[in-house]
Amino acid sequence: MQGLHMFFAIFWFGGTLFANFVVGPAAARSLPASQADFGAQIGIQADRVIRPVATLAIILGFLRGTVWGPIHSAGDVFNSSYGRWWFIALLLAIATFSWAELRTAPAARAIATVPDAERPAQIQRTIRDAMVELVGFAGILSMMVLMRFGI
User: Fold this and answer.
1) Which of 14, 80, 85, 126 has a C-alpha 20 to 30 A away from that of 96?
2) Burial class of residue 34 (count of CB atoms within 10 Å of its CB; 0-12, 13-18, 19+)
Protein backbone atom coordinates (compact mmCIF):
# COMPACT_ATOMS: atom_id res chain seq x y z
CA MET A 1 0.00 0.00 0.00
CA GLN A 2 2.79 2.40 0.96
CA GLY A 3 4.66 1.64 -2.26
CA LEU A 4 1.62 2.27 -4.45
CA HIS A 5 0.81 5.48 -2.60
CA MET A 6 4.40 6.68 -3.07
CA PHE A 7 4.44 5.67 -6.74
CA PHE A 8 1.30 7.63 -7.57
CA ALA A 9 2.36 10.61 -5.45
CA ILE A 10 5.78 10.73 -7.12
CA PHE A 11 4.14 10.40 -10.55
CA TRP A 12 1.80 13.32 -9.75
CA PHE A 13 4.54 15.51 -8.32
CA GLY A 14 6.98 14.62 -11.10
CA GLY A 15 4.38 15.35 -13.75
CA THR A 16 3.81 18.78 -12.25
CA LEU A 17 7.55 19.48 -12.10
CA PHE A 18 7.98 18.37 -15.72
CA ALA A 19 5.06 20.52 -16.85
CA ASN A 20 6.36 23.57 -14.98
CA PHE A 21 10.00 23.42 -15.94
CA VAL A 22 10.02 21.64 -19.32
CA VAL A 23 6.66 21.66 -21.11
CA GLY A 24 5.56 25.19 -20.19
CA PRO A 25 8.79 26.96 -21.15
CA ALA A 26 9.08 24.87 -24.35
CA ALA A 27 5.50 25.78 -25.29
CA ALA A 28 6.19 29.44 -24.57
CA ARG A 29 9.11 29.40 -27.05
CA SER A 30 7.11 27.62 -29.79
CA LEU A 31 5.38 29.35 -32.68
CA PRO A 32 1.84 30.53 -31.84
CA ALA A 33 0.26 28.24 -34.43
CA SER A 34 1.86 25.14 -32.90
CA GLN A 35 1.11 26.27 -29.33
CA ALA A 36 -2.63 25.80 -29.85
CA ASP A 37 -2.42 22.19 -30.99
CA PHE A 38 0.32 21.34 -28.51
CA GLY A 39 -1.67 22.86 -25.64
CA ALA A 40 -4.79 20.97 -26.64
CA GLN A 41 -2.94 17.65 -26.81
CA ILE A 42 -1.16 18.20 -23.50
CA GLY A 43 -4.49 19.03 -21.85
CA ILE A 44 -6.15 15.89 -23.18
CA GLN A 45 -3.28 13.66 -22.10
CA ALA A 46 -2.95 15.29 -18.67
CA ASP A 47 -6.67 14.75 -18.03
CA ARG A 48 -6.30 11.09 -18.99
CA VAL A 49 -3.22 10.43 -16.89
CA ILE A 50 -2.61 12.96 -14.13
CA ARG A 51 -6.19 13.21 -12.84
CA PRO A 52 -6.47 9.46 -12.05
CA VAL A 53 -2.89 9.30 -10.75
CA ALA A 54 -3.50 12.20 -8.35
CA THR A 55 -6.83 10.73 -7.27
CA LEU A 56 -5.19 7.38 -6.52
CA ALA A 57 -2.38 9.08 -4.58
CA ILE A 58 -4.92 10.84 -2.35
CA ILE A 59 -7.15 7.77 -1.87
CA LEU A 60 -4.20 5.50 -1.09
CA GLY A 61 -2.78 8.09 1.32
CA PHE A 62 -6.10 8.18 3.11
CA LEU A 63 -6.27 4.38 3.27
CA ARG A 64 -2.60 4.17 4.29
CA GLY A 65 -3.32 6.36 7.30
CA THR A 66 -6.62 4.77 8.27
CA VAL A 67 -7.30 1.18 7.16
CA TRP A 68 -3.59 0.21 7.06
CA GLY A 69 -2.32 2.80 9.51
CA PRO A 70 -2.65 4.12 13.04
CA ILE A 71 -5.74 6.29 12.52
CA HIS A 72 -8.95 4.55 13.54
CA SER A 73 -10.92 7.40 15.12
CA ALA A 74 -11.14 11.18 15.23
CA GLY A 75 -9.19 11.01 18.47
CA ASP A 76 -6.29 9.39 16.63
CA VAL A 77 -6.28 12.32 14.20
CA PHE A 78 -6.34 15.11 16.74
CA ASN A 79 -4.52 13.54 19.68
CA SER A 80 -1.36 12.33 17.98
CA SER A 81 1.35 14.13 16.07
CA TYR A 82 1.09 11.57 13.25
CA GLY A 83 -2.67 12.14 13.00
CA ARG A 84 -2.40 15.92 12.91
CA TRP A 85 0.32 15.92 10.22
CA TRP A 86 -1.57 13.26 8.27
CA PHE A 87 -4.76 15.33 8.37
CA ILE A 88 -2.96 18.51 7.26
CA ALA A 89 -1.28 16.54 4.44
CA LEU A 90 -4.66 15.18 3.36
CA LEU A 91 -6.17 18.68 3.30
CA LEU A 92 -3.17 20.03 1.37
CA ALA A 93 -3.41 17.18 -1.16
CA ILE A 94 -7.11 17.83 -1.70
CA ALA A 95 -6.46 21.58 -2.00
CA THR A 96 -3.59 21.02 -4.46
CA PHE A 97 -5.73 18.66 -6.56
CA SER A 98 -8.64 21.12 -6.45
CA TRP A 99 -6.40 24.00 -7.52
CA ALA A 100 -5.18 21.94 -10.46
CA GLU A 101 -8.71 21.03 -11.49
CA LEU A 102 -10.21 24.51 -11.02
CA ARG A 103 -7.32 26.75 -12.12
CA THR A 104 -4.38 25.08 -13.81
CA ALA A 105 -6.21 22.60 -16.06
CA PRO A 106 -8.72 25.18 -17.37
CA ALA A 107 -5.87 27.62 -17.98
CA ALA A 108 -3.96 24.95 -19.90
CA ARG A 109 -7.03 24.05 -21.96
CA ALA A 110 -7.57 27.73 -22.78
CA ILE A 111 -4.16 27.85 -24.52
CA ALA A 112 -5.75 26.11 -27.49
CA THR A 113 -8.69 28.52 -27.73
CA VAL A 114 -7.27 32.00 -27.18
CA PRO A 115 -6.18 34.10 -30.16
CA ASP A 116 -2.53 33.80 -31.20
CA ALA A 117 -1.71 37.24 -29.80
CA GLU A 118 -2.98 36.27 -26.33
CA ARG A 119 -1.44 32.81 -26.24
CA PRO A 120 1.96 33.72 -24.70
CA ALA A 121 0.20 35.46 -21.80
CA GLN A 122 -2.12 32.47 -21.36
CA ILE A 123 0.86 30.12 -21.23
CA GLN A 124 2.47 32.31 -18.56
CA ARG A 125 -0.78 32.29 -16.54
CA THR A 126 -0.87 28.52 -16.78
CA ILE A 127 2.74 28.21 -15.60
CA ARG A 128 2.03 30.59 -12.71
CA ASP A 129 -1.06 28.61 -11.69
CA ALA A 130 0.96 25.39 -11.86
CA MET A 131 3.62 26.92 -9.60
CA VAL A 132 0.98 27.22 -6.89
CA GLU A 133 0.65 23.44 -7.09
CA LEU A 134 4.34 23.17 -6.28
CA VAL A 135 3.75 25.16 -3.09
CA GLY A 136 1.07 22.61 -2.19
CA PHE A 137 3.49 19.75 -2.86
CA ALA A 138 6.14 21.42 -0.67
CA GLY A 139 3.60 21.48 2.15
CA ILE A 140 2.57 17.88 1.58
CA LEU A 141 6.18 16.69 1.55
CA SER A 142 6.86 18.63 4.75
CA MET A 143 3.93 16.87 6.42
CA MET A 144 5.27 13.48 5.28
CA VAL A 145 8.62 14.22 6.94
CA LEU A 146 6.92 15.39 10.12
CA MET A 147 4.71 12.27 10.17
CA ARG A 148 7.71 10.01 9.69
CA PHE A 149 9.68 11.51 12.55
CA GLY A 150 6.70 12.07 14.86
CA ILE A 151 7.52 15.69 15.53
Assistant:
1) 80
2) exposed
